[in-house]
Amino acid sequence: MLERLARWTYHHRWTTLLLWVVGLIAAITLQSTVGGSYSTDFSLPGAESQKAFDLLEARFPNVAGDTADIVFKAEGGVDDPEVQSAMEGLFGQIAEIDRVVGIDSPYTERGQGQISQDGTIAFATVHFEVIEGETVPPETGTEIVNLANDAEIDGLTIEPGGSVIQFSEFEEPGGAEGIGFMFAIVILLITFGSVLAMGLPIASALFGIGIGLSLIMLFANFLSVPDFTPQLASMIGIGVGIDYALFIVTRYRQQLHHGLDPEQATMVAITTAGKAVLFAGTTVVISLLGILLMGFEFVEGLAIGGAATVAVTMVAAVTLIPALLGFVGRNV
Question: How far apart, in Å, are the Cα atoms of 98 and each of 93, 103, 137, 288?
Answer without folding.
Answer: 11, 13, 10, 39
